[in-house]
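hi! just following up on the protien thing from before. the input was this:
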Amino acid sequence: MAIQNVLITGATSGIGLALFEKYTNQGENVIACGRNPGKMALLESRSYKTCLFDITEPAQIAAAAQDIKELDILILNAGDCRYVDDVKNFDGELFSNIINTNLSSLGALLQYFLPKVKKGGQVVFVSSSATILPFPRSEAYGASKAGMDYLANSLRLDLLEHDIDVTLVHPGFVSTPLTDKNDFAMPFMLTSEQAASRMLIGIEKRKKYLHFPKRLTLIMKLFSVLPSFLWQSLITKNDRSSKSHTREDQV
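and the predicted 3d structure came back as:
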């Protein structure tokens, strides 16, 4: 099988780093992308190429793309998660920042990297199972990932004529620097390596949609088709309990 050129955004930590490790170990030409110079330096000797840029800076993305000739797989993984803790005093700046980081940035990434994806190639969007059900405090994060879902599903239709597949990924809770900050229960949590292994298999099979762990995502999908009162009280109760424990820990 021919060596593939695989570009991964957010390759310096979490799922992105785990994917970097797996593709590198398979002997693929991995183009690792990130914004932290120190972390990128650690990957440089093992990468086919590294691209240092902030996904919210289109000019930086454009400059990095100039040195990329052809891609087999484009993995759009970089993102951020922050919560709206005081909904009555809604933080519009936080909301805008998350939408810009997780959703608006995809416009520039696709503008400059999608033309590099060759016929028969693949684009992978790393979204979140949070789009299956609404969660408290997730107005910004959930909205950004829901937008990503629509973008991926729509793009899949338009790329059919170009013979480029689109894979949408809905991970559940994965142990990463982002989830380390969470102060609530995260059932069925996977390691980044476990998540990357599931993704690798699904990407190789060119699946349109991946969701895992299924013991979590299937429960969420079941809840999503039930009357809202059956699951809303449970979700909001757990959120209130998490906030209560946090306040107690701070006393």
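The chain is about 45% helix and 20% strand.
The longest helix spans residues 92-113.
cheers
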